[in-house]
Amino acid sequence: MKYRKLGRYGVKVSEISLGSWLTYGASYGKERTEACIRKAYDLGINYFDTADVYGMGQTHAGAAEEVLGEILPDYPRSSYVLATKTFWPVGDGPNDRGLSRKHIIEQCNASLKRLKTDYVDIFYCHRYDPDTPLDETLRAIDDLIRQGKVLYAGISEWTATQIADGVHTTRHLNLNPIAVNQPIYNMLNRYIEDEVMPLCSREGIGLAVFSPLAQGILTGKYRKGQEIPKDSRAADESAGRGVSRLLTDEVLTKVERLEAVASDLGMSLAQLSLAWILTHPEISSVIIGASRPGQIEENVKAAGKTLDQETMEAIEGILDEQ
């Protein structure tokens, strides 16, 4: 495993990290989850990512955190970086959502209890909250950092303008800075390259990106003219709507051509997709999901891989085709 600094900050995270969106605490049982987490740790993954709403759709709020809280305490707390988030509704009450001071403080405390830890390394604002003053949100995070319950402030899927406003607010109020951003990023969704990535690079904000395999599309499991695999995410009505709408002939043609590039390099398409993301020095870590330990073993092989200029140009040519 290779490790990178979180933006300009001193903490180092594994190039490949393990997330729990749509998996742990929800779709997969404890035994399966435990096998994945322990395999990840054994392979050198030191960054584990979760959120208060992960697992909620199928069980209850905090389900994924509870599962991690049963497993990770077996390891020295200093040996891993633990992140969680808040924003999305965790209940029906008017204050059970958003980024108000009340919700942030209450949810952070609840997350710490579920995770069975005194602190989280990163606490993310899971989206931007237009209903709460930005200074209220950032002051609340700053207070948690000063209390030692949070080490680094994070944001997820904020626009470049929102990030810039956040950076200005922390400086103006002398608050702890935004250290890391968690946006979606993969070969099929590159929106952050225009404004978000350059801004984060300039401000020293790390990028820990999610959905690097486009929810399985960049594994090659979906083929033109073939039925959607019954055990795939696209076949799951509750989770697959966002996947199935991307399964166009244009996208699947690109996937076929990318798979040929990967094959020529002796790599799987998933490994190529992860290695491509990691060629960008702005990226601190790539958050993968996994239902089986074997998937983690294969994906971590992308860490430290280098792609030459010819390969990068070939990939760019495929992705640019309309």
Question: Which keywords apply here?
Answer:
8-stranded parallel barrel; alpha/beta
Written overview of the protein:
The chain is of the alpha/beta class and 322 residues long. The strands form two sheets. Strands 3-4-5-6-7-8-9-10 form an eight-stranded parallel β-barrel, surrounded by five helices. A two-stranded antiparallel sheet has the order 1-2. The protein has helices spanning 30-42, 63-71, 101-115, 134-146, 160-172, 196-203, 241-244, 249-264, 269-278, 293-299, 309-320, and strands spanning 3-5, 12-14, 16-19, 47-49, 81-86, 120-125, 150-155, 178-181, 206-209, 283-288. The mean pLDDT is 92. β5, α3 (101-115) and β6 (120-125) form a beta-alpha-beta unit. The longest helix is centred in the C-terminal third of the chain and has 16 residues, at 249-264. The protein is globular. 37% of the residues lie in helices and 14% in strands. The two termini are 36 Å apart. It is built from eleven helices and ten strands.
Strand content: 5-15%
Number of DSSP strand runs: 10
Using only C-alpha atoms, the radius of gyration works out to 19 Å
> For the terminal residues, how far apart are their CA atoms?
36 Å
Helical percentage? 25-40%
Mean pLDDT: 92
**What is the topology, as strand order, of the major beta sheet?**
3-4-5-6-7-8-9-10
Shape: globular
Order of helices and strands: EEEHEHEHEHEHEHEHHHEHH
Low-pLDDT residue intervals, each spanning 5 or more residues: none
Structural class, judged by helices and strands? alpha/beta
Largest sheet: 8 strands, parallel, barrel
Quickly count the helices. 11
